[in-house]
Structures are given as C-alpha cells and as structure tokens.
Specification:
Layout: E1 12-20, H1 29-44, E2 47-56, H2 68-79, E3 84-87, H3 90-93, H4 97-109, E4 114-117, H5 127-160, H6 183-197, H7 202-212, H8 226-234, E5 243-244, E6 247-248, H9 267-283, E7 299-301, E8 309-312, E9 325-328, E10 340-342, H10 343-363, H11 376-394, H12 400-434, H13 442-447, H14 450-460, E11 461-466, E12 481-485
Parallel strand pairs: 1-2, 1-3, 3-4, 7-11
Antiparallel strand pairs: 5-6, 8-9, 9-10, 11-12
Helix pairs in contact: 4-5, 6-9, 6-12, 9-12, 11-12
C-alpha cells in the first residue's frame, strides 16, 4: 500500500517475446502457450504487459533469417516505449551470441530495464547475470549446431537411400503424394520442354504459365521468376535422380542414386533439354532473345541491304484501319531510311511461300527414324570398368594408389561419352519437337510463339529483301518482296 503523501505506484510496461522455430501445422499453439506463461509471470511481478512480439515458425539460429518482431522489440526497447521484456526462456530470445550482445547493449544504455524468463531467473542488468546469459546462449548455440549436424547427416543418409526429402511437392508431382506424378502438371512440363527444344524462350513459357496459373508460383507473387521455370524443366528429379544440396548424388558404384518416385522424362529427353538451355546461355550470355515481329533481323533493305526491324505504328489503335506495325529501314541502325512496308501483308506472303516450299520438299522425302546413340554400349562398358575399379579398391584387391592411376582416364572417357550422348539426343529431340512443319496451316503457324515462327522461316530463308515501292498510292506488290532461299 502506498504511504501517506505518495502517489500510486505505476506498473512497469513490458513486452512479451514469443518464438518457435517450426510450426508445421500453422496453428501457432506453441507461441500461444508461451504467451500465457509470460503473462502470468508479468502479473506476479506486477508488470503491465503492453505488447506481444511474436516470431512464429522463425529460426533464431540461422544467420540469414531476419526476425521482424525481434527487431521491432529491440527498437521499442531503445526508444523507451517498453520498460523490459518477458520471455519463456532465454533461447527463445537468442541462439546467436551476436543477438544477445545487441540486447545487452540496450540494457547498458538503460540500466533500469526489467528482464525475466519463465524457466530461469537471469538478470541482464547485472554483470553476473550477463555472464550467465552468455554461457547459456553459447550452449544453446552449440546445441543448435549439433542438431543441425545430425539433421544434415540424416538427410544425406536418406538421400543415399533414394528417399524423398519431404516438404511441399515439386511441380509435376501430386501434392498429396510426392511419389506420384500429377498428369496435368507433367503434361505441361513435357509440352514446355518440347517448346524449348524447338527454340522457344523460357521467358515466353514463363509468361504463358503465369497467365494459365501453372508452375506452382509462390503465393503473393505477381510474376514467376525465370530461374524457377528453368529449374522445373531441368530438375534432375524429372528422371528420378536424387539430389543433395542441389547436386546429383552418386552412389559407391559411380551411378546416380535413383529416388523412390515416378519419373516424368527419359534420360535422353532430360539431357536434351538441359543441353539446349546450356548451349543457349553460352551462345548469348545475358542477352534477350525476345522478338515481337516475324521478320525483324531477317528482312533487309533493297537499297542499302541493312537489316530491317519491325516497329509499332504510332497511329495504330485497337479497331482502327491503320496498320499495326511496319518494317522500316532506319537511319539510327545505319540504314538509308528510304524503304518501308506495312508488316502484315509481308509476313503473310513470306509464310505462304515457306509453307508451300516445305510441302513440296516433304512430298519426296521420308520422315527420319528415331535412332539410338551408336556408342551406348561403349559408355556402359566404361561405367562397368569404373564400378569394377571401385569395388576392387573397396575389397583391397588393388591399392588406392593403383586406383588413382587407373580411374581418371576412365572418368574422362565416361564424361566425354556422356557429353557426346547429350549432343546426339539434343539434336534428335530438337528435330522431333520442331515436327513436320509442312503440315501447318497459316493460322496454326501464326498461333506458334514468335521464336518458333522465326526458326521455321530461317530454316528455309537466309533473308527477305524488301525493295522500294516508289511514289504514289502503295498497293502491296508481292514482286517487291524477294525471299533469299537457303541452298
């Protein structure tokens, strides 16, 4: 009871900090229990709990994780908005010594701050309390390191056995059973892979997937990342290969460890897609392959022979009679600027000529047969030799020194053969993906992605010369559009 002449005692305002590292169910029951115990302790100390700082499903051990509520709590402490902290246990607050030191620094600046935990009584306001806190956090940090090491070892053991890693199902497999293929998702993946082999950009596929809601984009994101789509189409899981830390895991026999789930691709299909994407990156590192108009970079000026690019007609509006785009020789690009033509009639004329030429050629030729890589048996024999050498060393039939003399040459030959196989199937799968273009109608042609359209045109033509039309009213004259055919 307050003495006569004294004002009423003002309760200290404290914040309650709760945290749990994993909340798989997402129901926040663990932090709710911590909050109830902390509130009870605050009442016993006659403190007023004015704010709860909750970091649910957030690690305090991982260095790259930012705890938003923890950071806000430190900011409020330093600003004087709260007079102390109540936590369930010290390791809820800090498992990294640097986080504890940041907290101690604030208690140095404000010596009258309160601090209490449910499970023990550590006073950060005294030297002995801080020493004890540092020891406790150091032990908590070691415990997390030990647990992390055991978890990594367990995951490696599971990976070596070909077992799945758990978590959300990758795109292509059923969400309720990661071992079973999702037919619709697998169909979308294979269709996208065929497009890649046929020359379509990853960016084009990404845009279409975003519009169709494919690829399991992260919730709350407006755009799907380019590398996310690329990973889906080249994931080693597609052929059943088990990975560990992003790399294909190999067994003692030198062969990839196979996972216990249904594959989506054959090895030949997957290697062809991976090789195509890798080759594209090497040819045009960091450059965009996007084109908007069919003959951009293919058409040339009939006067100066400079490449012509398509450009949008500024007067064009949806529903207007004006041409949407045109091909114009540009002074900016080093041309004469004297030749230009409305785009749509030129495109339709060239497409009609190319498809007719392809139908004529197809009439006298047979479709290519699906062939196996001729050196498959040689590769299998090299793999068998490598397995025999590893087995011989494991059973002490040969020494490690002898193994290291014989193994590198075999491994180099194996890698060379695998690279040759990838190139072989890449070219074969690319031909298959491009299909029999002679069967396309004009409407089907223009429904293809622009990269695919240009690839078909460039297979038959090396250039299209657009000659000047002269003065007066310009009526489209196909004789002024000269295709340059490949020999």
């Amino acid at each position: 009871m307050a003495q006569l002449g004294e004002g009423p005692t003002v309760a200290r305002k404290v914040g309650i900090y709760t945290r749990i590292s994993r909340d798989d169910e997402g129901e926040a029951l663990g932090v709710a229990r911590q909050q109830a115990d902390c509130e009870r302790l605050a009442d016993l100390r006659s403190w007023q709990a004015v704010k709860v700082y909750e970091d649910n499903d957030v690690s305090a051990f991982k260095r790259n994780v930012v705890r938003d509520e923890f950071e806000l709590m430190l900011k409020d402490l330093r600003a004087g908005l709260i007079d102390g902290i109540v936590a369930y246990d010290l390791d809820r607050l800090a498992r990294q010594p640097r986080d504890l030191e940041r907290l101690i620094e604030i208690f140095d600046e404000r010596p009258r701050l309160e601090f209490a935990t449910v499970t023990n009584d550590v006073n950060l306001g005294t030297p002995d309390g801080r020493t004890m806190a540092r020891i406790m956090v150091a032990f908590a940090n070691k415990s997390s390191h030990d647990a992390s090491r055991r978890i990594r070892r367990k995951h490696l053991e599971l990976a070596q056995q070909g077992k799945d890693s758990g978590g959300p199902a990758p795109y292509g497999w059923r969400r309720d059973d990661r071992s079973k293929v999702d037919p619709e998702a697998a169909k979308a993946i294979r269709a996208a892979q065929r497009e890649v082999l046929a020359g379509v950009r990853i960016g084009t596929i990404r845009t279409r997937w975003q519009e169709q809601g494919l690829g399991n984009p992260r919730e709350g994101t407006k755009r799907m990342a380019h590398h996310h789509v690329e990973h889906i189409l080249t994931n080693p899981r597609l052929v059943g290969y088990r990975t560990y830390h992003g790399e294909i895991l190999y067994g003692d026999d030198g062969q990839p460890v196979m996972g216990d789930w249904e594959p989506i691709n054959t090895v030949e299909e997957w290697e062809a897609v991976c090789a195509t994407i890798a080759e594209r990156k090497q040819q045009r590192p960091g450059q965009s392959l996007a084109r908007k108009y069919l003959l951009s970079g293919i058409a040339r000026c009939g006067l100066c022979k400079t490449k012509i690019r398509g450009q949008l007609n500024r007067k064009w509006q949806p529903g207007s009679k004006a041409s949407k785009y045109s091909y114009q020789c540009s002074v900016v690009n080093g041309g004469c600027g004297k030749v230009g033509r409305v785009g749509q009639p030129v495109d339709k004329h060239i497409v009609r000529l190319v498809l007719e030429e392809k139908r004529e050629k197809a009439a006298g030729s047979d479709a290519p047969e699906d062939q196996r890589w001729p050196r498959e048996q040689e590769l299998e024999e090299v793999n068998a030799d490598i397995r025999q050498l590893l087995t011989a060393e494991n059973t002490k039939q040969i020494s490690v020194s002898m193994l290291l003399q014989l193994l590198p040459a075999k491994e180099r030959l194996r890698d060379e053969l695998k690279l040759e196989r990838s190139r072989f199937y890449k070219e074969q799968k690319q031909r298959e993906a491009k299909g029999r273009t002679e069967d396309l109608t004009e409407e089907e042609f223009f429904d293809l992605p622009i990269e695919r359209q240009q690839e078909i045109i460039l297979h038959s033509l090396s250039a299209v010369i657009i000659h000047p039309a002269g003065r007066g009213k310009r009526i489209f004259d196909p004789d002024l559009i000269e295709p340059v055919w490949r020999e």
